[in-house]
UniProtKB/TrEMBL annotation, chains A, B:
Its cofactor is pyridoxal 5'-phosphate. It comes from the Bacteria. CDD domains: BCAT_beta_family. The keyword Transferase applies. PROSITE patterns: AA_TRANSFER_CLASS_4 (PS00770). It is an enzyme of class 2 (transferase). It comes from Sporolactobacillus kofuensis. This is Branched-chain-amino-acid aminotransferase. SUPFAM superfamilies: D-aminoacid aminotransferase-like PLP-dependent enzymes. It catalyses: L-valine + 2-oxoglutarate = 3-methyl-2-oxobutanoate + L-glutamate; L-leucine + 2-oxoglutarate = 4-methyl-2-oxopentanoate + L-glutamate; L-isoleucine + 2-oxoglutarate = (S)-3-methyl-2-oxopentanoate + L-glutamate. Pathway: Amino-acid biosynthesis; L-leucine biosynthesis; L-leucine from 3-methyl-2-oxobutanoate: step 4/4; Amino-acid biosynthesis; L-valine biosynthesis; L-valine from pyruvate: step 4/4; Amino-acid biosynthesis; L-isoleucine biosynthesis; L-isoleucine from 2-oxobutanoate: step 4/4. Its EC number is 2.6.1.42. The keyword Amino-acid biosynthesis applies. Belongs to the class-IV pyridoxal-phosphate-dependent aminotransferase family.
Length: 364, 364
C-alpha cells in the first residue's frame, strides 16, 4: 500500500468560523480524505478531495447492519508554529482492533497516519490556536455493499474529516456532574464495548438524555452482568484518586481502551504515583467517599483531555468530590498533557509527531 | 400527518431479474419511498421517487453514532392475483419500540403502512409469484445531522426499499445446522437487543462468520450474563418441540420480538398445543435431547418463515434433531403460514391485509 495520495482541488474555499464560536464538531474544513476497499483491489485509490456529501446506495450495509468503526484524535498548533499530532499510531492500532471485531478489513496503520498528516498539512490554516482549541480528526470506515441479508460487506469506504474545535464541555476545567446509570447498559464482555463502533454510541443515547433531563452532564456506566462494577463515562475513561493512589477500571473487554487513559497511567507512573487498574465496585467507591478517602475523580478522553468530576449520584447516594472544584492532580494532568500536545512542555515520553508542511505538501 | 404522498416518475424502468435467480436482497425495484424529519416540521414531505443513491454529509450521525432502526416484511402475490401483506401493523409497532430505545422520533404507524401499500401498488409488477418468493419490504430510519459529538440527531430520513426475493436459505425447508456460540454475545438486558437496530447485527458478524468457517449455517445466541440461557438465532427466533409441548425463550429485553414468533405461538395455541415461553438453559435442552424428548427444533423469521434445525452443536455436545429431517410440526407451521400469507389458506386470525392497486394508485 505504498500508494500515492492524489489531490483534487476545490473550486472555492469556505469562510473560516469565528475562533470564539467553534464548539465541538460543528464546522468542517475544505477537504477530506477518501479511500475505497474492494475484495479484488484491497484498499485503493487514496485521495484528498473537496469536503462534500457522499452518495450511497440505500441498500448499503452501513444503513442496515451498521458495519462501522471510527477514531478521534487532534492536531495542535504549537506556539512556535509547529503542527503536532498526539500518538496517532495508538489511534490507528485501536482502529485495527475495532476492524477485527467488526469484520472490517484491516488498514495499513502507517499509511493512514501518513494520510492524516497530508490532510492536516493541506488544511493547516484551519488549525485554531487559542488555549483548548485544536483540529479534531475523525477517520471512519463504513461498509458500502448494496445488498440486504446479514453479511460482512465486500466493499468499504474510509474517510477522514476535520473539524476545528474548542473544548468539548464548554469550559473544560469546570467540574462535571455524573449520574451512575443502573438500568441501561452500554456493553458486556463478548460484545463490542472495546471497539470504537457506532452501535455503542447509539445504545448510549437513551441513558445520556435521561441523565441530562435529571440535570447531569454525563453517565457513568456499570458492567452489564452484575450492574455493580464501574466501567467508563459516555466518551471518557474514568479515574479515582483514593488517598495517594489512583484507581481506574481495568480493561476487561467491555471498556474502550482510551489513548488518554493509557497516557495518564504512563504519566502518573512516571511521576511515581501508584496506579491500580482493577475492578472497582460502585459500592466500594461510595464507601471510600464516605470515609473521606476519595480525593479526586476525573474523566479522560481526546475531546475533553481531562474532565474533573465534581458530583456523583448513584441511586440515593450523592458525593460531592473535592468540594466541587478541580483537584490538584486533575489540573496537573491537564496542564501536562495539553502542554505536551501543544509543544509547550518537553515531550519526555515521545508522544508527539510533527506534521511537516513542506514534506507533506501534496502536488495538485 | 394526513399528508399526501407525492410521486416522481422515473425516466426509465429496470429490466426485471430472472425469477429463478432472485436470491435474497440482491435486486431492488424502480422506486423507493422517502420522508424527512426535522425538529420544526416533524415527519414531512413523503414521496415515492426513483430508486437511487442517497447523498449525505460525511459528518451525518448514521456514520458515527449509528442512530438507526429498520424493519422487514413481505408482500405476497396470491394465486387469484391479490397482493397481500402479513401483519404490517406489527412491524410498525415494533419499529416505534425500536425508535423509542434509539432516541428516534416516533412514526405515525398507520401512515407508514399506507406508504408501504402505495409503494407496493406502484411496484406490483415486481412481486414474484413462485412458491417461496415474495417482495421483501425494508423500511429504515437514519439520523442525518451533520455534527460530531455524541448526541441524538435532530434530522432523520425514513426510506422504504423493495427487493424481490426467493427463499432466504436457498431451499428453505432443508434443515440448517446451528452452532451454540459461547464466547461472543449479541445483547444483554438493559441494552438494545429487543430493538431492530443496525448495531446488533454489526456485533453479530464475527460469530456468524466463525460458525460458517466451522461448517454451520447460523449461530444460536446465549444470554450475555451467564452464557447459559438460549436467546435466538442470527435472524430468527427459536422454538423447541419437547414431547408434546413447544418451548421458546421468553421475551426478556434482549431478544427481538419476532412477528413470526408471535404468529407461531398464536397458531399453536389455536391448534390446542401447549406453548411455554420460558427461560431455557442450553444444558437442559441437551439433556432433553439425550432423553429423546427433543422432537423438533425450528427458527422463525420473516425471511425464512419456518426454518427447521437438523443439527445443533454446543461445546463438545452435538444433537441430530428429527433425524436431520424436517419435522411434522415444522412443516405444518410452514405450510399454514405461507398458505395464509399467499391467500391459499383461510386467514382465520385476520392477519393479512390486501393492497388494493386501484385505490392505492398514485397520481403522477
Ligand atoms: C466510550 C469512550 N470511552 C473512552 C474514550 C476516551 O478515549 P480516548 O482517550 O482515546 O479519546 C472515548 C472517546 O474517545 C469513548 O468514546
Ligand atoms: C435478530 C432477529 N431475531 C428474530 C427475527 C425474526 O423476526 P420476524 O419474525 O419479525 O421477522 C429477526 C428478523 O427479522 C431478527 O433479525
Amino acid at each position: 500500500m505504498g500508494q500515492s495520495i492524489t489531490f483534487h482541488k476545490a473550486d472555492q474555499l469556505k469562510k473560516k468560523p469565528d475562533a470564539g464560536q467553534l464548539g465541538f464538531g460543528k464546522y468542517f474544513t475544505d477537504y477530506m480524505f477518501e479511500m475505497d476497499y474492494t475484495l479484488e483491489k484491497g484498499w485503493h485509490d487514496p485521495k484528498i478531495v473537496p469536503y462534500g456529501p457522499i452518495s450511497l446506495d440505500p441498500a448499503a450495509t452501513i444503513f442496515h447492519y451498521g458495519q462501522e468503526v471510527f477514531e478521534g484524535l487532534k492536531a495542535y498548533r504549537a506556539e512556535d508554529g509547529r503542527i503536532l499530532l498526539f500518538r496517532p499510531n495508538k489511534n490507528m492500532e485501536r482502529m485495527n482492533q475495532s476492524c477485527a471485531r467488526l469484520n472490517i478489513p484491516k488498514i495499513d496503520e502507517k499509511f493512514v497516519v501518513k494520510a492524516i498528516k497530508k490532510l492536516v498539512a493541506v488544511e493547516q490554516d484551519w488549525i485554531p490556536n487559542q488555549p483548548g482549541q485544536s483540529l479534531y480528526i475523525r477517520p471512519f470506515i463504513i461498509g458500502t455493499d448494496a445488498a440486504l441479508g446479514v453479511h460482512p460487506s465486500s466493499m468499504y469506504k474510509l474517510l477522514i474529516i476535520l473539524s476545528p474545535v474548542g473544548s468539548y464541555f464548554g469550559n473544560s476545567m469546570s467540574p462535571v456532574k455524573i449520574y451512575v446509570e443502573d438500568e441501561y447498559v452500554r456493553a458486556v464482555k463478548g460484545g463490542v464495548g472495546f471497539a470504537k463502533t457506532s452501535g455503542n454510541y447509539a445504545a448510549s443515547l437513551k441513558a445520556q438524555t435521561k441523565s441530562e433531563e435529571l440535570g447531569f452532564d454525563q453517565v457513568l456506566w456499570l458492567d452489564g452482568v452484575e450492574h455493580k462494577y464501574i466501567e467508563e463515562v459516555g466518551s471518557m475513561n474514568i479515574f479515582f484518586k483514593i488517598d495517594d493512589e489512583v484507581w481506574t477500571p481495568a480493561l476487561n473487554g467491555s471498556i474502550l481502551p482510551g489513548v488518554t487513559r493509557n497516557s495518564v497511567i504512563a504519566l502518573l507512573k512516571h511521576w511515581g504515583i501508584t496506579v491500580k487498574e482493577k475492578r472497582i465496585s460502585v459500592k466500594k467507591l461510595f464507601k471510600k467517599a464516605e470515609k473521606q478517602q476519595l480525593k479526586e475523580v476525573f474523566g479522560t478522553g481526546t475531546a475533553a483531555v481531562i474532565s474533573p468530576v465534581g458530583f456523583l449520584k448513584w441511586e440515593d447516594h450523592v458525593i460531592k468530590v473535592a468540594n466541587g472544584e478541580t483537584g490538584k492532580l486533575s489540573k496537573k494532568l491537564y496542564d501536562t498533557l495539553t502542554g505536551i500536545q501543544t509543544g509547550k512542555q518537553k515531550d519526555e515520553l515521545g508522544w508527539t509527531e510533527e506534521v511537516k508542511v513542506e514534506k507533506e505538501k501534496v502536488t495538485e
